[in-house]
């Protein structure tokens, strides 16, 4: 369990007109991501603010100020349907409601 590398997670997305490299797509606030096209390259630097803080802002905006929620209840159902399909494909048991 001990390693000199704390965490190694990365993603590389290649498209017809360029590529995106993310050193840690789970926690982008800790790293700089590069975006490259045929004729340019730029680095994207994110704030150090945790993604949880943005989620809390959205929750407060909906509850306190009545602003529209950006995701629908159907989105949650679709996400769980996809997660259940992944569990089935991996041969795992589905989680039971608690």
Quick rundown:
This protein has 98 residues and is an alpha+beta fold.
Explain the overall architecture.
- The chain has helices at residues 51-65, 73-89, and strands at residues 11-15, 18-22, 32-37, 40-45.
- β3 (32-37) and β4 form a beta hairpin.
- 0% of the residues are buried.
- It has 98 residues and is of the alpha+beta class.
- It is extended and about 50 Å long.
- It has 2 domains: 11-45, no CATH class; 51-89, no CATH class.
- The model has no long low-confidence stretch (mean pLDDT 85).
- The two termini are 31 Å apart.
- 33% of the residues lie in helices and 22% in strands.
- Strands 1-2-3-4 form a 4-stranded antiparallel sheet, with no helix packed on it.
Helix content: 25-40%
Which structural class matches the secondary elements?
Answer: alpha+beta
Q: What integer value in Å does the Rg equal?
A: 19 Å
Arrangement of strands in the largest sheet: 1-2-3-4
Q: Could you say how many structural domains there are in total?
A: 2
Shape: extended
Largest sheet report: 4 strands, antiparallel
Helices and strands, with pairings:
Blueprint: E1 11-15, E2 18-22, E3 32-37, E4 40-45, H1 51-65, H2 73-89
Antiparallel strand pairs: 1-2, 2-3, 3-4
């Amino acid at each position: 369990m001990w390693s000199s590398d704390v965490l190694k997670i990365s993603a590389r997305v290649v498209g017809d007109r360029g590529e995106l490299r993310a050193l840690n797509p789970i926690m982008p606030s800790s790293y700089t991501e590069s975006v490259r096209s045929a004729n340019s390259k730029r680095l994207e630097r994110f704030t150090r603010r945790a993604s949880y803080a943005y989620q809390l802002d959205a929750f407060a905006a909906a509850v306190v100020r009545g602003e529209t929620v950006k995701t629908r209840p159907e989105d949650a159902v679709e996400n769980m349907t996809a997660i259940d399909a992944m569990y089935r494909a991996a041969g795992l048991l589905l989680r039971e409601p608690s």
